[in-house]
From TrEMBL:
Native organism: Pseudoalteromonas phenolica
InterPro entries linked to this entry: Puta_zinc/iron-chelating_dom
Name of the featured protein: Zinc/iron-chelating domain-containing protein
Pfam families (alphabetical): CxxCxxCC
């Protein structure tokens, strides 16, 4: 199983809240490697913190269960989408809820 990201691109445009990505934006929170019509332009080489599943294994698996980690991620994704008034087909839906 992997995190069911819907590729809305919002997390790439609010990276001012991610200390590990402080050098990836010019103060506006939009990743320098994000292009609106493409998405992440360094996808294969993106930082670990941008990789939800690998990030869990290497950074967070001693802090949360995978279920709780996915729930927390989905909560943030869906909150950002509601705030940005994105269409509902972008909402992250987890199998068990
Ligand atoms: S905000 Fe969530 S659903 Fe949207 S691209 Fe980022 S991880 Fe995927």
């Amino acid at each position: 199983m992997s995190y069911p990201c819907t590729r809305c691109g919002l997390c790439c445009q609010k990276i001012q809240y991610v200390p590990e990505l402080k050098n990836f934006h010019n103060g506006n929170g939009i990743c320098l490697y994000f292009k609106a019509d493409v998405g992440c332009t360094i996808y294969q080489e993106r930082p670990l913190v941008c990789r939800i599943d690998e990030g869990y294994e290497q950074l967070f698996n001693n802090q949360f269960s995978l279920t709780d980690y996915y729930l927390k991620n989905a909560e943030v994704c869906n909150y950002m989408q509601l705030e940005a008034e994105l269409p509902s087909h972008y909402r992250v839906k987890l199998k068990d809820g």
